[in-house]
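We read letters as residues; the fold follows as tokens. Both lines appear below.
***
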Amino acid sequence: MDALDGLLDGPRARGAFLLRMVMEPPWAVRIEDRAPICLMSVRRGTACVVPPDGGEPVRLGPGDIAVVRGPDPYTVADAPGTTPHALIGPGGVCTTLHGRPLSQDMALSVRTWGNAADGATAVLVGTYLLDGEISSRLLDAVPPLLTVPADARTRPLLDLLDAEIAQDEPGQRVVLDRLLDLLLIAVLRAWFARPGADAPAWYRAMGDPVVGTALRLLRNAPADPWTVATLAARVGVSRAQLARRFTELVGEPPMAYLTGRRLAVAADLLRESDATVEAVARKVGYSAPFAFSAAFKRARGVSPQEYRGSPRDHPDLPDRQRSLPHDRGPGSLTP
């Protein structure tokens, strides 16, 4: 498993929110859906993304891709100064800025909506609905807004996603989810590969012959009874050398990294499976449920049972989205 595998390992897109937005200027949409991550790409015309941190607006042309990391709000518009006329809240619910629901009248076709069928701007939008605990290390290193220019490697995926968004075939949701996963991985790979990329320390460490091997072992088999000694033996260096080099490149000792990895996997299992707490504990390398529960509460502030029962950021989102008429879209983007 390499560094980017960790991004979508486990909580891959499940019922992601995908649509084609077609707009005729002037237009502006305020996004306050609190989604963990959204990917958008202009197919024709131009669009402007005003980042959540109040930074400089970024203009996108055909083929350009932007990735916005939540949960802070941001604006997508034809121009930076255009006043938003619509607000997208959790679940893709669209209202005016004053809370008045917007009708479905502006829906254009399957997963396609906007204010004009032949609008000058068309944007593909793919939104992940749920936080992914396993990918938190990488997502924490991603800025609030990143952009990747049009590229021959992403163009085929964009073309395929654009074509599939308009389809309503059996298994369509799974097809769209996987295409979104592939596109996001391709974008992040291009972003981290750019000259002067500020990649996270553990990502860069994957290229080190010693630490990279150790990281792969821990990521691939977090439940194994690892110690610094056994890990060093597998890598072929001394305990002291591994501990020193691992901490220097990753920013934490090997066993601290392993604990974080185990608890991230456990958090995902608690949310995405019906396994008992005892079974989850065993799957991530804890022989005693009590020790697992204590470690989990120490790291996350709640017990495994409390974590499993707590509401997700958007607990009803997939059901709510399925209740929407996908051949009409989630709502109008104009009053």
